[in-house]
Amino acid sequence: MLEFARLEMTRTIKPQIFGPGLVELGNTICPESDAPLDLDSKEPTSLKTATFPTLRSALEESIHALIPVSPSPRADAEILLGYVLGKPRHWPYVWDQPFTAPEYQRFRDLMERRISGVPVAYLTGQREFWSLDLSVTSDTLIPRPETECLVEAALDIIPEKARWRIADLGTGAGPIGLALARECPDCLISATDISAPALAMARENAGKHGVTNLVFRQGDWFDALDQVGYHMIVSNPPYVATGDPHLSKGDARFEPRGALMGGLGGLNAIGHIATGAPDHLRPGGWLILEHGFDQGERVRSLLRKLRYSGVSTRRDYGGLERVTLARSDRIEAPDHVSGMTR
User: Fold this and answer.
1) Domain locations in the chain?
2) Residue 219, annotated as binding a ligand
3) Which of the chain's ends, N or C, has fewer CB atoms near its CB within 10 Å?
4) In angstroms, rounded to a whole number, what is the distance separating the alpha carbons of residues 253 and 255?
5) Is 164 assigned to a binding site?
6) Half-sphere exposure of 142 (CA within 13 A, CB side)
């Protein structure tokens, strides 16, 4: 059986993965003839002669080890095991076979890193967004389900078969721009980012999915745009306030600070984009911004002070205010744009 020592919530304990024959997690009893496989050892001598655990038993022990350190222990373990095997997540439940030595070594290495906090997306180099399998690295923000609400808001506005020009500011790995380009093939999306490595990843994702109505430009927000008169500007900018405790928790500990931190109150980038967008939008053009769950009222107030019209906020899948949209003139928002707080 594969076994990870149980982690305590109050302190970090480095786990060990053991060979066969161990049954207790709390007071583990290990046969004298079966020494533990120390995670610090790069070439455990017992790997060559060990009888490796089955996929299902390894999965269940891994889930148990992740409970204190992950909000989604089962999903994490299933994804990592599927990644090692090159199989779907459900594979161990229907085909419970022993590990091979290389699989065992690779899985235990990934589990050690996950228990230390490294995000699953960075371990696998992949994250799904809008049914798109996106490549990600530590140079890019990890796409989150909440951001799909921004895509939904944009698609509710863009007319069918529209030939709009849309700017995606701060694209990162390209999730928003790619989703809009895929759903609106007649639109032209300009995706920008100040980070060259992030843009390289976005280009790779576009090529992987055969998206051609998407261009990439490097620069700081509007400086990257080569024209004006956009029908829509969308952005998931940095909006976490300096000193916010969430920066020292979960996946955020490993993500690029420049993609997260929005200044003392969290609205520096949002304020910059909101101020400059009217100069780059055509009359009646739309601005759509993602923001923190507790920033909706401040963002709406800011946009109204800047004389935007039709200011409204959508809630995310958890019922929290997450995306605010507005028009660059006094034209009222159409009735079909629903699900919003005014």
Assistant:
1) 1-117, 129-341
2) no
3) C
4) 6
5) no
6) 19
